[in-house]
Amino acid sequence: MSSNDKDNAGLTIAGKTYRSRLLVGSGKYKDLDETRAATIASGADIITVAIRRVNIGQDPNAPSLLDAVPPSEFTILPNTAGCYNAQDAVYTLQLARELLGGHKLVKLEVLGDEKTLFPNMPETLKAAETLVKDGFDVMVYCSDDPIQARMLEDLGVAAVMPLASLIGSGMGILNPWNLSLIIEQAKVPVLVDAGVGTASDAAIAMELGCDGVLMNSAIAGARDPIRMARAMKLAVEAGREAFLSGRIPRKFSASPSSPMAGRVA
User: Which of 104, 107, 126, 233 is catalytic?
Assistant: First the structure.
């Protein structure tokens, strides 16, 4: 295996390696058939599920998401969307563990308010500490603050997931400098979570050095979700290849593509 192949071997989280560096959500699709088709088109191995909003067995009389994206084919990533304090978030993921037969890999998000859906970092830190002590492998939605990200890492989380911009906004990466600082210091995977609007946003995240990207609205809300899912797959792959290749430096002067030495005339 070449050094480049080794660098691009996959995304490792909590000791397990996944082929795809694109993680997708399961909400906002018109039906479960579209959810499955878009997930397959994205190439994602991990699909996140809002336990408070989606049925994965809580209601035996209703259709279950797991019929469309079964754990035999995908890694289900329960999340705490809709939780506004640490206690509710911890309880929600403990419920998910029971529903999924002891599943340990989870996504923690504790929101600050209903308007911005910005993370409440004090409550997030509190919940992360409790969940790590309870044996969970915790991926954490967080602000793009390098100090907060380091505090989460010190608690023993499996990955930090700073927002690019507000959830569902499609505004893309508003603060690449903060993301770069988080990536530079991190010893766990860093994945952009929230705010991706189109394929170029995903590519930029990967070019910055992110280990992966998680998205939902950008795919599910597109005019053609299946096609957008394919576009996101390619964007993440292209961004990763560009990062590993090493871009040329930005300069204030032109540089001819063809060498001047040895020219004919």
Answer: 107
